[in-house]
Amino acid sequence: KLAQPTKATPKRSPEVQAARNHLRRRGWTHETAAAALGVSRVHLTYVLTQRRVSRRLLNAIKELPDSQIPA
Prior knowledge:
By secondary structure, the protein is mainly alpha-helical. It has helices at 14-26, 30-37, 41-48, 55-62.
C-alpha cells in the first residue's frame, strides 16, 4: 500500500511569521487589525499568507498596540 502524500506547509519569511505572531500575541483578529490598519481583511490575509507582498503593511502591524477588543 502506498503512503498518502502529505501537503507540505509553506515556509514563511521571518518578517511574515513575526507579523502573524505579533497579531496573535496582541489579540488582534484579521478583521479588526485590517480595520485599524486601513486595509481590507482580504489584503491583510493575502499578505500574511504570502500571496501578496507589502513591507509597509508588515511594518504597520509591528506598531499595533494590544487589541482593545475583549477576548
